[in-house]
Amino acid sequence: MPRYFFHIRNEEGHLIEDLEGQEFADLAQAEENAMASAKEILAEGLLSGKPMLTGAIFEICDEKHALVLRFPFSDAARMPGTRP
């Protein structure tokens, strides 16, 4: 299975790199994981009284470290989906 890396670009433009990555059958499953993870991060921030990170973006890269998808956290806040 292909490995995808879920880097986070924060609202200030800084990149937090995912050095381990995760294996998924395809990019669609990786995108579903990005949405669930973004929802979880947003919910944790909201519950702890921290500012919402709706300006953050997952930059998903493949095993060759090529960018294959950008998933804005703001999309996760607007889209229905599975519970994180």
Compact description:
The protein has two helices and five strands. With 84 residues, the chain is of the alpha+beta class.
What features would you describe in this structure?
The protein is an alpha+beta fold. It has one domain. The chain is 32% helix and 26% strand. The protein contains two helices and five strands, in the order E-E-E-H-E-E-H. The chain has helices at residues 27-47, 73-78; strands spanning 3-9, 15-16, 22-23, 57-61, 67-72. Strands 1, 2, 3, 4 and 5 form a five-stranded antiparallel β-sheet that branches. A hairpin with a 5-residue loop joins strand 4 (57-61) and strand 5. It is globular and about 35 Å long.
End-to-end C-alpha gap: 23 Å
The major sheet is characterized as: 5 strands, antiparallel
Q: Helical region count?
A: 2
What is the overall shape?
globular
Q: Radius of gyration, Cα only, in angstroms?
A: 12 Å
Number of strands: 5
What class, by secondary structure content? alpha+beta
Number of domains: 1
Helical coverage, percent range: 25-40%
Residues in β-strands, percent:
25-35%
Write down the secondary-structure element order: EEEHEEH
Low-confidence stretches: none
Topology, pairings included?
Blueprint lengths: L2 E7 L5 E2 L5 E2 L3 H21 L9 E5 L5 E6 H6 L6
Antiparallel strand pairs: 1-2, 1-3, 1-4, 4-5
